[in-house]
Amino acid sequence: MARENYLFTSESVSEGHPDKVCDRISDAVLDALLAEEPEARVACETFATTNRVVIGGEVGLSDQRKLAEYMQGMEGIVRACIKDIGYEQEKFHHETVEVTNLLHEQSAHIAQGVDARANKDEGAGDQGIMFGYAVNETPELMPAPIHYAHGVLRRLAEARKSGAEPALGPDAKSQLTVRYVGGKPVGVASIVLSTQHLDETLSSDDVRAIVEPYIRAELPDGWISADTEWWVNPTGKFVIGGPDGDAGLTGRKIIVDTYGGSAPHGGGAFSGKDPTKVDRSAAYAARYLAKNVVAAGLAHRCTIQLSYAIGVAKPLSIYADTHGTGEVHEAEIERAVAQIMDLTPRGIRTHLGMNRPIYARTAAYGHFGRAPDADGGFSWERTDLVDALKAAV
């Protein structure tokens, strides 16, 4: 029997966190190439440290002459990302940071099993397992701890960028410990927030005075009580932030990017990968299916697992777990999701419209639990399979 009364903790990091700077740059490179060619192949990794950013990996366009031209513009993409995030520190500034571009053409051995232009039965870009998850704890069908941890940092970033809170810097981390009673989230036992501040004279109490109103505005009414523990900048000053304070690397925040530890993770990172890579596209598809299962009322909580082999189009397995909350047997859900959606790599991209420059916006504050955008961004958050699922089971 599942536990009903417990504490669960999830963390988030801001767009200015060193790893998130790298995720943003990698996804901006991806968007630039997808804008040029929807079938562009991209696997871009970014490393950032004091006064330096290095981008590398494999990219491909059908016209390699165009690719050479685009390579000349990568430095500008890097600087634009850093500027938008807000870094103008002496040792990490968008105007002065040294940028090294080590991107190169995609491996022909990888391309031969995946290439949609030459192979109508396009296979997966790699082997692997991917998980999707949904739970009816929030309107977005996300686990409450990670959902509100993201929300706190998003509010603070908006206040910083609008000029409302000029003392705040881009780098920040949040952590919420949520109290569950009867299996439902009812309050916050502790709040941890560490945020960079530009005024060196500010104390932890001063920073709490700045951020507390935004935290209270983000959390549901009644979740903060007299018993809630507050830990704001618990180590004291936090003036040096971003890659100057700690090196960053693409793909190191995979739990922050997904469900905050509330669900399994297949291990593959998302940022910098075009949607032929099932690490990304199939994880989005699994979330899409799990969310629609819960939205359809077939379960209060649902995990979907998909697995793939490189060069093989169809998933090797589909697994559903409703954690004892299902209204129908899991085998029926597995059969239904395979019936209503083509889960080949191309089928996923076509169904969700993924061959578009929609990825830089996913690089911070979570890939899931976001509202679908009019241009196709976050299409995997739609709940347009509800009727089909109900009919299929």
Q: Which key phrases capture this entry?
A:
alpha+beta, 11 helices, flat, four-stranded mixed sheet, single chain, 24% strand
> Please, what is the oligomeric state?
single chain
Helix coverage percent: 25-40%
What is the tally of helical segments?
11
Average of the residue pLDDT scores:
94
Q: Tell me the distance between the termini.
A: 26 Å
Task: Write down the secondary-structure element order.
Answer: EHEEHHEEEHEHEEHEEHHEEHHH
Main sheet strand line-up: 1-8-9-10
Query: The biggest beta sheet, please?
Result: 4 strands, mixed
Categorize the overall geometry: flat
Runs with pLDDT <50, length 5+?
108-114
Strand content: 15-25%
Rg from C-alpha positions? 21 Å
Strand elements, count: 13
Structural class: alpha+beta
Q: Could you characterize what this model shows?
A:
33% of the residues lie in helices and 24% in strands. The protein has eleven helices and 13 strands. It has a four-stranded mixed β-sheet with strand order 1-8-9-10. Strands 6-3-2-11 form a four-stranded mixed β-sheet. A three-stranded antiparallel β-sheet has the order 7-12-13. β4 and β5 form a beta hairpin. α1 (18-36) crosses α3 (74-85) and α5 crosses α6. It is flat, with a radius of gyration of 21 Å. Residues 108-114 have low confidence and may be disordered.
Can I get a quick summary?
Helix content is 33%, strand content 24%. The chain is α+β, with helices and mostly antiparallel strands and 393 residues long.
